[in-house]
Amino acid sequence: MSPSTPQQPDSSRRAQWRNDLYVVIFEADTRAGQFFDVILLVGIILSVSAIALETVQYFEDRTAWMSAFWALEWGLTLLFTGEYVARLLCVHRPLRYAFSFFGIIDLLACLPMYVTLFTGVKSGSLMIVRSIRLLRVFRILKMMRMLREAEDLKQAVWRSREKIFVFLSVVMVAVTISGTLMYHVEHVVMRAEGELTPKRVDQFTSIPQSMYWAIVTMTTVGYGDIVPRTTIGKVISAALILLGYSLIIVPTGFVSAEVQARRQVQNRDLTSRTCPHCFREGHSIDANFCDMCGNSLVQNQDGDGGDARRSHVTQTSGA
Q1: 3-state secondary structure string across the chain
Q2: 14-141+309-318 is classed CATH 1.20.120
Q3: Residue 204: which of 177, 225, 186, 191 has the closest Cα?
Q4: Could you tell me where in the chain the CATH 1.20.120 domains are found?
Q5: Dihedral of the CA atoms 114, 116, 118, 121 (nearest 10)?
Q6: CATH no., domain 161-251
Q7: CB–CB of 247/171 below 8 Å?
Q8: How many CA atoms does the CB half-sphere of 74 hold within 13 Å?
């Protein structure tokens, strides 16, 4: 093997049940994989719902409900703990998975109840982190194209960063100028002319306060907590609102242009195939190598673990 050849996982030394378990847990193209993910997502939804309902006064005042929520959380914690251990057992590099994004999320989904048990500190709110795991619903629904679209959007925003920075700089200049101008019009002028009365309280007490008003006005949010009192102030406010309507579509145009350009050079049908090395999801059914890390997607190209992968591809193609 040459030094430039990517190191392949030694599937011949792995038990076959680990290869089968990997396909079930990390890929959703088989019935077993879809069933596993559906059960997992139902558990996540139940957990998040239980945590939310525990904060409702009606359930807090009833011991029976709180006991039921407690038992449910312990049952789900054991389920998630078993799932986390199973993931560590079936991956080729457990440490890499443990320190990956979803690996950390999976670990945090198990810890809160154990922390409460051993320390007595309530950490139920931390269980809401389980809601992040609902992102895996895309795998169940075979909507990997949506994940690709999210990646395209992220890349489009990143490539437009310089244009967006210039745009935000212009906005901040406009906010600073309009806020300073409104401070002098509403605060200095009204105080100099003695127009401040109990019914006409000075709301533009400082330039930062006036800049806050300018941001709220330019974004057309309009809380109404700060309003101009003078005629000149109202004219400035109207001009700022029109300017906000004109500027709000500018970043959208930048990002839309980049997304359209990316779509013209990339259009592939993707599945939920997961790279066993970097855990990147979303590869073509006929792909042999990961487009992120370059390692082989086939567990063993020499014939041992590759049989499970090929049979899995055959079942998917037949379905």
Answers
A1: CCCCCCCCCCHHHCCHHHHHHHHHHHCCCCHHHHHHHHHHHHHHHHHHHHHHHCCCHHHHCCHHHHHHHHHHHHHHHHHHHHHHHHHHHHCCCHHHHHCCHHHHHHHHHHHHHHHHHHHCCCCHHHHHHHHHHHHHHHHHCCCHHHHHHHHHHHHHHHHCHHHHHHHHHHHHHHHHHHHHHHHHHHHHHHHHCCCCECCECCCCCCHHHHHHHHHHHHCCCCCCCCCCCCHHHHHHHHHHHHHHHHHCCHHHHHHHHHHHHHHHHCCCCCCCCECCCCCCECCCCCCCECCCCCCECCCCCCCCCHHHHHHHHHHHHHC
A2: yes
A3: 186
A4: 14-141+309-318
A5: 150
A6: 1.10.287.70
A7: yes
A8: 7
Could you tell me where in the chain the CATH 1.10.287.70 domains are found? 161-251
Tokens describing residue 273 = 């195939």
Is 114 within 8 Å of 104 (Cβ atoms)? no
**pLDDT tens, position by position, for the chain (319 residues)?**
444 444 444 445 677 888 888 888 887 677 888 788 888 888 888 888 888 888 888 888 888 998 998 899 899 889 989 999 999 998 888 898 889 888 888 888 888 888 878 877 666 556 667 777 776 665 555 555 556 666 777 777 788 888 888 888 888 998 999 889 888 888 766 665 555 554 455 678 888 989 999 999 988 888 888 888 888 888 999 999 888 888 877 877 777 777 776 665 555 555 666 777 776 666 666 777 887 777 887 655 444 444 444 444 444 444 4
